[in-house]
Fold:
Amino acid sequence: MQQAERAVFDIRRGQPVHISGPEAGVLVAAVEGLTPALINRLRVLGCEKTRLAVTSHRARWTGIANHASAAMSLLLPDGIPVSEIVDLCTARHDTTPAEIADRARPVTPLESAALAVVRASRLLPAALVTGTGPVHREELAALIKDGTILDVPADQALALASSPRLQVSETSDAIVPLADSEESRFVLFREANGVQEHVAVLIGDPKTWPNPVPVRLHSACLTGDLFGSLRCDCGEQLRGSVREIANTGGGVLLYLAQEGRGIGLANKLRAYRLQDQGMDTVDADCSLGFGADERRYEAAVEMLQTLGIDRVRLLTNNPDKVRALQEAGIDVADRQPLLGKLNRHNARYLTTKADRAGHFLEELLRKA
Ligand SMILES: Nc1nc2c(ncn2[C@@H]2O[C@H](COP(=O)(O)OP(=O)(O)OP(=O)(O)O)[C@@H](O)[C@H]2O)c(=O)[nH]1
Ligand SMILES: [Zn+2]
Structure:
């Protein structure tokens, strides 16, 4: 995995990386942050025309998918400006020119590997890809040899998508008295790739926690949690769950690095702009190339296991969270609703969560 994880950093820095398959290779760059110079670099170092790989969600959104669940590869015309490439990945309506759409095809395994690296970087999920053939050009071979361009085996890159190498490890901890629960301890967990960090907030005295243990899995929301954004209910749920756990004898809040349902803050802000133009929260994410919810809960499960918790009362309205824990063998003995406040800015967001993601929010929405 090591090379693939390093590749994620290079992609975020705007550097191309090389992915090697058994017979051929591709140079990859992210669409986010793309410059004419970078497009030219791929062209000079590669030996095929540059293509754009988009996810199955984006392909379906624009109607170019000829296969129900295929990520697609588009041949880019020579000299296409960066803004038009970005449009191919983000435009609200399908504006894909017919000459590009008609020749779209499902991605090859190497293109799929390229998308996996870009997706793991949490940038816009779209990759520029140029074939490098079985024998590399001299200049490319030299750049790979001296380490300027990272070479990643395709199977490693693909594995980024299928099985996150988790193994969270407890890294540090300290007492942090909270306004809503004076007796609290923060325990930081770090994923094996060294990037993502999640926090377990232990509320009250673990020795006297009730059984089942009250547990909240809370996905990070910078706007709501820290600034009290009215676009969502996250801030209220966060403070409300700390209070509720403290009042019921203590338990755990897992603060998970899953900003924007796992798409990252940059993409969440992009999605907000689309919502301001009329889309709902699910369509906005899908039009940018994401699924309705990109979160995974393996890290949360590992954290609970590390803390020795196997039976919980889960504070959530989200059926996916209940399912994820149950499937991992954690007994969700009870589910407790956790309602924020409805306001004119979050009403549509909450209605969409209920209607399209099956969240249990009837009680709250009835008040609307
Ligand atoms: N992509 C996207 N993410 C959003 C939007 N609004 C809020 N979020 C994110 O949605 C997530 C909400 O997290 P939680 O409150 O833990 O989960 P939930 O799915 O609402 O389920 P509950 O347990 O019932 O609260 C956070 O990661 C937010 O950053 C939005 O419009 N688009
Ligand atoms: Zn939020």
In short: Residues 24 and 368 are 58 Å apart (CA to CA). The pocket of zinc ion (ligand 2) is lined by residues 221, 223-224, 232, 234 (CB under 6 Å). DSSP finds 17 helices and 14 strands in the chain.
